[in-house]
Amino acid sequence: MNYNLLKLENQLCFPLYACSKEIIRKYKPFLDPLGLTYTQYITLLALWEEDNLTVKALGEKLYLDSGTLTPLLKKMETQKLIKRVRSADDERNVYIKLTEEGRVLKDKAAAVPEQIGKCISLSQEEVIFLHQTLYKILNQF
């Protein structure tokens, strides 16, 4: 039998996984002063784009299941970054709204993308190609 396809170096998933882990690690020194984890940061990014999302819509946007999202949102509510508001029309729907503190943090986080960009030595064309390719893969799921 040919087990060549089972080599780690031949797996598409492995470099994606390793790069993701390493890039997220690069965020830490920029997010620590803001008191945020990477997952909290991407949650805020989604809410800065569109506030007052349901937990379900937020989870879909971030590709996070409710088992991951619920404790994350509870912690962010404790930090006073968001508030969870149950719908008066349908109690099953919980909306996530930014607090004033959550909105103010946007200005403090504005430099993070540029700081991360300096950590990765790719040309603008390579960044665009990689971004498009990753979304092409992601949109198949």
UniProtKB/TrEMBL annotation:
The record's annotation in SUPFAM superfamilies points to: Winged helix' DNA-binding domain
UniProt keywords (A-Z) are: Cytoplasm, DNA-binding, Transcription, Transcription regulation
The record's listing under Pfam families reads:
Staph_reg_Sar_Rot
Which compartments is it annotated to reside in?
A: Cytoplasm
Record-level GO cellular component terms:
cytoplasm
* Residues in HTH marR-type domain copies: 9-139
Its principal location?
cytoplasm
Q: Which domain of life is it from?
A: Bacteria
Give one GO molecular function term. DNA binding
In the record, biological process GO terms are: response to stress
List the PANTHER family hit by this protein, alphabetically: ORGANIC HYDROPEROXIDE RESISTANCE TRANSCRIPTIONAL REGULATOR, TRANSCRIPTIONAL REGULATOR, MARR FAMILY
What is the protein's given name?
Answer: Organic hydroperoxide resistance transcriptional regulator
What species is this protein from?
A: Ruminiclostridium hungatei
For this protein's source organism, the top of the classification is:
Bacteria, Bacillati, Bacillota, Clostridia, Eubacteriales
